Amino acid sequence: MTTAPTTTTRVVTLARRPTGAPEPEDFELQERPVPEPGDGQLLVRNAFMSVDPSMRGRLEETEKHYTTNFRVGEPLDGSALGRVVASRADGVPVGAWVRHRLGWRDLAVVDAATATVVDAELAPLPHWLGILGQTGFTAYAGLVRAGELRAGDVVFVSAAAGAVGSAAAQLARLLGASAVVGSAGGARKTALLTEELGLDGAIDYRSERVRDGLARVAPDGIDLYFDNVGGDHLVAALDALRQEGRVALCGMISQFDTDGPRPSIDHLIQAVLKRITLRGFIVRDHEDLRPEFEQRVGSWLRSGELVAKQTVVDDLSHAVEAFLGMLRGENVGKMLVRLDPDVDA
Asked: Does the pLDDT of residue 61 top 90, yes or no?
């Protein structure tokens, strides 16, 4: 058991709530004190942090999220992974690697009860924030629970080159789908879907209507739609779904930062006519699946059947750029920020 003197750390704070699309000026990089850890706490030097689409809703005062709103003048938070440099918690020694929720800073004082020790020998560290973290777990729970994936299903995944999407698209095949198709923005990403991730077809939503693309890559229809986008993607999927099809509603990034016309809710008549099930889900409701998920996905990673894609940006000073770039779709796979340059990405 060790203690550490009070020190300081860089943190990213919310300077103001965005009006429209977030801008760099909405955030501020500050230096703030870090107290000594108290009983049951850890001082963690963060090595990686995650930036996620769900953070977009937390910037507003609305409830377009499933946790808490960020507060003006206060540090942001989110998934991070780092090494324990001081510990006042039994069972978590100095040197252990832990996953926790206090990202957006170099140093964090973390309640040990809220941290998870990870095995750096079992998988590369970035994987514990990506394919073996909440990202991969979201894809797994969405397919298995919300989507009730069945052997032989034809599955459509939107934003399939993104973090959750690239995991869901690959896991769908490994879980028994007969065919998997996906959408992405741009020729580079759609090529990635078929050439590296093994999808059966890809739609570039920037060059063709999603409806037309689905008719091309899944001419006989789909059974399950894993929705990360909403909007025109959801409407196209409702049209393409077969009788008693299913929709796993993971996220609807299309609802943010657009002044264009939105599809009418009248399209939901397809759910009635085809007896479609639409089920929203929050990953934290399915923790009972975590051991099964880690065992199966870890095995698929070791065998090479599952590819973990990630985009890594270096240094906390570029975290806001990474976040805004992720919202614009500039990442392939999981978007991470490496905070410790001495740790291999």
From this structure: no
